[in-house]
Write a structure and sequence with these properties.
Length: 107
């Protein structure tokens, strides 16, 4: 369980670094809020952080869900899905909304 939490925290940090990289690369351009193609292609460094974030989030969510599996398999599956959604969506969404708000960009 503790290793899973470490993976989850590391995944959130990787996603935050990647989202900040995207905002710096698209400094004066609006970022898509949910899903779309960025106007400027992300750098390799940014893509590496995104990939590491995805891998760590999967490993962390499975580790956390594994600890509940013997007690309640249904809640374990719900926990894994909820963690994956939260870990992979929320950091990028928050940083994107802050970027678009700070630069007065509407999209």
């Amino acid at each position: 369980m503790i290793l899973g939490i470490v993976f989850v925290v590391s995944a959130v940090l990787c996603h935050m670094v990647a989202a900040r990289g995207v905002t710096h690369e698209n400094d004066e351009l609006p970022l898509p809020t949910v899903y779309s193609v960025n106007l400027v292609r992300p750098s390799r460094r940014t893509r590496r952080f995104q990939t590491a974030g995805w891998i760590l989030s999967i490993m962390g969510a499975l580790r956390v869900g594994e600890s509940f599996w013997m007690l309640t398999p249904g809640w374990s599956a719900v926990t894994v899905i909820a963690l994956l959604l939260l870990i992979n969506a929320i950091p990028a969404l928050v940083i994107t909304l802050a970027h678009n708000r700070d630069h007065g960009l509407q999209h």
